[in-house]
Amino acid sequence: MAAYENTIPMSERSAQSFDYFASVPTVSSLAQRSRSLGHEARSRDYGSERPNLVVSGMKKFTKAYFTGPRGNLDLHANKIVEKLEEDKSLMEDTPVSEQLRKEALKNLPQGLTMKRCVKSKLTKSVSQKSKRKPIGFWKRLKYSINISFSKFVASLKNFNYFELWHGSLKDIEGRFGSGYASYFKFLRWLFVMNFGVALLSLGLLVVPQIILDTSASNKTTNTQSFNFRNIFIGDGFFIETVFYYGHYTNQFIEVIPHLSFDMPASYFSVTVILYVLSFVVLAVSVAESYRRTFIETEGGLQNVYANRIFCGWDYGIATKEAAQLKSSSIYYELKELLSEELKDVEDWSCLVKFWTYTIQVVVNILVLVILAAVGWMTWVLMKKSNEGEIAVYITALVINIIIMVFPSLFYYISKHEDYKNPRITLYITLGRTYLLGAVILGTILAFWLIHAEGKNCWETLLAAEVYRLIIFDFLFSVVLSVIVDVGYFIGRYFLNREPKTEFNIAKHTLQIIYNQGLLWVGFLYSPILPAVVTLKMFIIWYVNQGCVRKLCRPPKRTWRAAQTQTWFMMMIFVSILLIIATHGYALKSVRTSQTCGPFKHYNYTYEIVTTHIEDLEQDLAWRVIMNVTKPGGLAFIMIALGILVYYLREHALANRDKVKMLKETLVWLAKDKKFLVQMYNDVTKGEINPHLRDNRFVDPSRILPHEFTEDVSSSVDEDDFHARFKKYS
Amino acid sequence: MGNKLLTFTEQQLENYQDCTFFTRKEILREIRPDLVPKRMRQNEQVTIRVPLEDVVEKLPELRENPFKQRICEVFSRDGKGNLSFEDILDLLSVFSEQAPRDIKVYYAFKIYDFDNDRHIGTEDLDSALVLLMRQELSPEDRQQIIEKVIEEADVDGDGKLSFMEFEHVITRAPDFLSTFHIRI
Fold it and tell me: What is the pTM of this model?
């Protein structure tokens, strides 16, 4: 596995030749692909005109690096086609190999004109050369299904949600960089997910209930009158509408004769399925994001300088001021790095270190105490909120004030804690703010689940509480904070300071996460909540966009979007996990209210599942499932999964060791090369090659093997040679 | 799309779709009247070339890019920076979100290799720093930074970065994919 690079002799190198060439698969690609390198082909070219092809790695992936003569497009294309034809799996006339050809073409690092040329030649040669093997009926069927499926997926891609708000996202990215754009992308993704959930729940739950309500046979009147403040509080008039769980019937809806709609079953299954779907989507996104930012980039965190230079420039920037700011931010970062080299950070004395650690521990304990206090206060407020009108307002107000004020408090505290790395400070503040939201939501849920026994229709009251919080959060975090920001802007303008501030990405993202958590807590008991939250997110998008455009300037420091995004996704994933667990507990062990809701004739909500399953007991499928879920079957499945996980982990560890070994080999080979060149220089002392007559040191990358072999034997005195060579043997 | 002076056949659009990372909608969006020279007929997407200064004017993302000269040179067929329509499509395809990391790394290496010697040497790094910083760094600082970069990334000790070493550094960088991206 030599690491040598072959070079074209200088005479043939032209200024326009820019096709590159590597003779081994890269170390990183080895680490990434855990299959064996069966197809590795290496060819050494000592400066001739033949193009070289290296096929590395995976079965279905052809990475072709070419070198070739400049000049005729046709000639070059012919050579590429020649090399591609060597791979048999690409040349068949089947749809599968057509897909492979398309993939190979896309990954070819050549210009578009060249690729089109290659494509036309390839199709011509395929149709000429391949023998039409008779494909059996089943294969043809399978191929046609595959093709239509991939065409369907491609047409979906043409239609995908990347189009939504594309123009404004591009504008923000151009003027402010990709840090702010990452927040807006996150918001858009959540918006689309909520929109889907809202559509399904509206269509399958709310609409049937409304149909029932308006049908002639079942007119119910609302006992409460409508008051404007009911929109904010969510009770009163709304308690007896489709907003909340309590209004849904537990009968079969049969407005159209012979077409009955089982409301309880529908309610249960739609909500549960939507929760599970959201969970799956989030899990997949988190896993992918984690893999992309942490696993594949392992070990790269030491290359700070190289990263700053090569990945520092944000290619999406399109305005002059953003570009100016970007280049000054890179300048400051590099200056900071350089100055850190000079200062010795490890120079802290023991006393200073001890003091810093104590402060950090004390502050963390203090924060935990604060969080506990917040939880206790929420509990007390919940207790009081059932006693009167004003109390309801006060609860929502206090909770929202806490959520607005405490993050800034945490940020201020963390600045005094002297963490080594500013990133750690950011993560710790984010973690604390997230815990604050989690404590509040958890207390609310716990309160209602515990006090469920005494209340009439507790699910409705819980849903009303959540709705109230969402509306108040909208008022505070959107309306009020816009007013405050505009006020600051005007104030600074009149004080002749810089009016535009930076957009606080972390704070806004956490707001969205809190919002989403509220949605998931309340969705089980209020099918209309996703629609409300979708509308709220829609408004948030436009408000934030306006704020950013008018009141904010681009960030001074680079926002490391990739890793922080992964943390945000993980936070959301943990939220939905905990909430689903709590709801599962509620469905199983908390008594439903007997006077309202679709489950009022059951004691516990999960009983609906058991009653339906009893009907299926005769089915074969049921018997299979019963057998599989017996302890023996489950144990078998668990053991098989455990073995699989162990195997994969060992595989990964073995690959890591292989990578380390290969890196060391590379370094040793480089040292060998240097050593040999040094030896050559010493031995010949420039007497051989006319180029070296003036005793110039040989440049290792310019030396060519044929020069070496050809000239050594010519004019050196043998004894002299051996005498000098003895030094090294 | 207004007064379309040029049309593409179905076959051509499908060709483009197969050879780039774009979807059909994105390709159609790219045929902006300000970007494409007027009256461009059937085979002229290959032959008509837009000179470098005009390209830079028309693509706002390239206007502010410090490496715009080098990017145009890399993607043009004659190496001087004059791009035809297909070259521009190729450029945007490589910078799009769907392009895989390997292709981006390959082209990034070509862009940063200013003297085309298949290595990123100290002069290349120097030019890159000058362009990035718009000459705010002093020469000693630049020298120091260059030394640090070589120290970090050079494995075989020849004082410059080969493609393998560059790829090794870049695939470990978490931000590469998000910064090396132009939204069309």
Answer: 0.73
Which chain B residue's Cα is nearest to A303?
B152
**Which segments of A202-312 does DSSP mark as H helices, in order?**
207-214, 230-233, 263-290, 304-310
List, for residues B53-109, the tens digit of each pLDDT value: 777 777 777 888 888 888 888 888 777 777 877 888 888 888 888 888 888 999 999
How many CB atoms lie under 10 A from the CB of residue B116? 18
Among B165, B178, B181, the residue to mutate for chain A (most A Cβ within 10 A): B178
B96 touches chain A (CB under 8 A): no
Categorize the per-residue pLDDT at A720 as very low, low, confident or very high, splitting at 50, 70 and 90. low
Chain A residues in contact with B136 (beta carbon < 8 A): 327-328, 331
The mean of the pLDDT values for chain A is 76
The minimum CA-CA distance between B18 and chain A, rounded to whole Å, is 6
- A262-284 average pLDDT score: 91
Report ipTM for this prediction: 0.85
**What is the rounded distance in angstroms from the CA atom of residue A354 to the CA atom of residue A347?**
13
CB atoms B171 and A296 under 8 Å: yes
Helix H segments across A255-299? 263-290
Asked if pLDDT for residue A373 goes beyond 60, the answer is: yes
Nearby residues of A507 by Cβ (< 8 Å), 6 or more positions away: A407, A433
Nearest-CA distance B107 → chain A (Å): 8
Given this model, what pLDDT does residue A51 score? Answer: 29
Indicate the residue of A29, A112, A663 with minimum beta-carbon distance to B20.
A112
Question: In chain B, whose CA is at the least distance from the CA of A32?
Answer: B171
Report yes or no: B95 at the A interface, CB cutoff 8 Å.
Answer: yes
Taking alpha carbons only, the member of A448, A463, A467 closest to residue A591 is A448
- Confidence tier at A2 by pLDDT (50, 70, 90): very low
- Give dist(CA A508, CA A433) in Å, integer: 12
The residues pairing with B83 across neighbouring beta strands, listed in sequence order, are B50
CB pairs below 8 Å between A and B: how many?
225
A666 to chain B: closest CA residue: B156
Quick one: tokens of A447?
A: 């309160």
Instruction: Please name the residue that has the structure tokens 């100016």.
Output: A324
Question: Is B139 at the interface with chain A, CB within 8 A?
Answer: no
Nearest to A316 among B20, B167, B182 (CB): B182
**Cβ(B101)–Cβ(B108) below 8 Å:** no
Q: Which residue has the tokens 């270190």?
A: A353
Q: Report the pLDDT value the prediction gives residue A710, as an integer from 0 to 100.
A: 39
Q: How many CB atoms lie within 10 A of CB B31?
A: 18
Higher pLDDT, A93 or A414: A414
Q: Give B65→chain A minimum CA distance, Å.
A: 7
Integer angstrom CA distances of residue A411 from A121, A362, A405: 63, 16, 10
β-partners of residue B50 are B83
Give the model's pLDDT for residue A194. Answer: 94
CB-based contact B17:B23 (threshold 8 Å)? yes
What pLDDT, on the 0 to 100 scale, is given for residue A132? 62
Name the residue facing A327 among B132, B144, B171 (closest C-beta): B132
Cα distances (angstroms) measured from residue A393 to each of A259, A382, A399, A401: 44, 11, 10, 12
Chain B residues 37-56 within an 8 A CB cutoff of chain A: 46
Percent of all residues in chain A with a pLDDT value above 70, rounded to a whole number: 77
pLDDT above 70 covers what percent of chain B?
Answer: 85
B138 touches chain A (CB under 8 A): no
